[in-house]
Specification:
With 228 residues, the chain is of the alpha+beta class. The chain contains eight helices and five strands. The longest helix is centred in the middle third of the chain and has 20 residues.
Length: 228
């Protein structure tokens, strides 16, 4: 049975922003306020919409997300603080971890991203075994889900930064929020109203794109070269 569609209000900012415009708006911002430009139900619907429309290998749909708001968001970053403090040399923890963890906790919320490898068991055996033999497919799909949510949030005026503290608190996340043990944590997207410029400054600097993209099989004129 087809999953019900998630309705996104056409009056919302993200719905009026072109895809390519949204890719430019998406930036990494660490300094965030404990405020949101959109209501909580809009945040939740954007996450649902993103996961629903994320491409997955053979439509296995193994990406999972948990939205943490208010006290639950703060609790998660308290857990990250305690766990990473125990596993990090004091000098490094004091210089790098404390400022960052403090900033994350002061933001509005966090989206936790997981992958459920058990989803492959519900596929036909031939496809399920194929998916299991290529675990990087799930990583690709999960990264796309993270990118869609991140881009949609930024298009709504929120600031975001993507973190990876699962090394320190992975199993504790499942235990604290009663999640299936089969859910494997991949990333944490922190968000809130921007309280400073994006990382790297307002004007983002780019390496020359020409050496980074190679094209073969197209007419020289299309590549911007004059015919001799």
């Amino acid at each position: 049975m087809a999953a019900p569609s998630v309705m996104i209000s056409p009056s919302a900012v993200a719905s009026k922003t072109s895809f390519l415009e949204a890719t430019v708006i998406r930036r990494s911002t660490v300094q965030l306020k404990k405020e949101s430009t959109i209501p909580d139900d809009r945040i939740i619907n954007l996450v649902k919409h993103s996961l629903l429309h994320t491409p997955t290998p053979f439509h296995v749909q193994s990406a999972r997300a948990v939205v943490l708001l208010h006290q639950e968001h703060e609790k998660m970053w308290d857990m990250a603080y305690e766990a990473s403090q125990k596993a990090t040399p004091p000098e490094l923890f004091n210089a790098r971890f404390i400022p960052n963890l403090t900033a994350y906790k002061k933001s509005y919320g966090t989206v936790l991203f997981f992958d459920d490898p058990g989803a492959a068991d519900r596929m036909p055996p031939m496809l399920g075994n194929l998916i299991k033999n290529f675990p990087e497919w799930a990583e690709h799909s999960n990264g796309i889900a993270q990118y869609i949510v991140w881009t949609a949030f930024c298009a709504e005026g929120l600031g975001c930064n993507l973190q990876h503290y699962q090394k320190y608190i992975g199993p504790k996340l499942n235990e604290e929020w009663g999640l299936p043990q089969s859910w494997v944590p991949h990333a944490q997207l922190v968000f809130g109203t921007p309280d400073g410029p994006p990382r790297g400054g307002v004007e983002k600097q780019f390496a020359d794109i020409e050496p980074r993209v190679k094209v073969f099989g197209v007419a020289e004129a299309v590549c911007g070269k004059e015919e001799g």
